[in-house]
Every structure is written in structure tokens, then in C-alpha cells.
């Protein structure tokens, strides 16, 4: 998510700062959960709030990407949109295929939140190959 | 889109960064225009035309122009 070209423009610098802020929150809550910080609220209504809190930076990161596109020139905007659409499409297709594999082929269950790191992994893989706005 | 942007830029001794600043776009955008990886919007094409004081079609080949016969 940070590998979107050289961070030389003000728009890119803002994007990097926003990304670090959102991902810092995301990682902090998840590390806290892994080390048992929220064990007491599991299976209680508060756990639903925790789930929403962890997911909020995901929405924030999408907002940061939209702001990058708004503040960038037409070339960067076009390339970013293309990278985002390809990554989202590939991630959805892969995760859907895995879901069907669970249903029909007995594949082990994959947690729903894996779609987010999967999306950014695919984004990182496809971005170097998307260099035109057409 | 084929164009003479690099030629016009280098004639003036400008870097891609300098041309980008004059146009209000990134260096990457200038590079993409010069290497035909980005077709400019009409707005950007007109800004480039004003900067170089030339008609748009002197800078960008019109791919839809009718070929002259004989």
C-alpha cells in the first residue's frame, strides 16, 4: 500500500502519513488481541464493537487512497484506479474460489478478514506491471 | 498518443520535473506523456499548447485526422 510510486508529491506524502496512521491502529489492536488484551470481552456484545474498531482502519485506508486520487494529477489518478480495480478483482476472485473450494472440496476455512491483506498483497504484485493509464 | 513533447521540452532545456511544475502535474505524468503511456485530457493538452504557444495538433498527432490522398 506504500509502494505506489515515489513519494515525492505532497499528495503522496499525505497518503503515506495517513496509511501509517491507519495501519498503526490496525496492527496495534490486532497485536493486542493476539496477546489477550481483549480476552475478557470475547463472546460478549462488546466483542462486536471490537470487531468494528479493528475494521475501521480498513475503511480509513480506502479513504486515504481516494484522497490520494483526488489530490493527484490525472496520470497518477488513472494508474491508481487501474491498479486498485485489478487488485480488487483478483483478490475477490481468489477469495471466492477459496470459498467455493471450502463448500465443494473440503478446503480448510479461511477467515473473512484475510481478504484485506490478500487485496494489498495482490496490489503490490500487480502494481509494477500497471504503468499506463489506458 | 504520439507527440513532440520531449523535443519541445529539451529544446528549452527543461527537465521533466520543471515541465511538470509548469503544467501542475507530476514528473511521472510528464514521463508518461512523453513515452505515450498516458493520453492527456483535453484540459491538459490545452495547458501544454498554451505553455509552448503552439496549437494542440502541432504537439499531439491527431489519430482521427483524415489521411490526405495522393
Largest sheet of chain A: none
**What would the CATH topology of the domain at 5-52 in chain B be?**
434 Repressor (Amino-terminal Domain)
Distance between the termini of chain B: 25 Å
Individual helix count of chain B: 5
Overall spatial form of chain A: flat
| Low-pLDDT windows of residues of chain A | none
Q: Output the radius of gyration of chain B.
A: 12 Å
The gross shape of chain B turns out to be globular
Helix content of chain A: over 70%
SSE string of chain A, helix = H, strand = E?
A: HHHH
Task: Give me the count of strands of chain A.
Answer: 0
Count of folded domains of chain A:
1
* Strand-pairing-aware structural class of chain A: mainly alpha
Largest interface: A-B, 14 and 14 residues
Pick out the low-confidence regions of chain B.
none
Structural class of chain B: mainly alpha
Task: Describe what this molecule looks like in 3D.
- The complex is a heterodimer of chains A (134) and B (70).
- By secondary structure, chain A is an all-alpha fold.
- Chain A has one domain (10-129).
- Chain A has 4 helices and no strands.
- Chain A has helices at residues 10-34, 45-71, 74-105, 115-126.
- In chain A, helix 2 runs antiparallel to helix 3 (74-105) and helix 3 (74-105) packs across helix 4 (115-126).
- Chain B is mainly α and 70 residues long.
- Chain B has a domain at 5-52: Orthogonal Bundle (434 Repressor (Amino-terminal Domain)), CATH 1.10.260.
- Chain B has helices spanning 5-11, 16-23, 27-34, 42-52, 56-59.
- Chain B is globular, with a radius of gyration of 12 Å.
- Chains A and B meet through helix 3 of A and helix 3 of B.
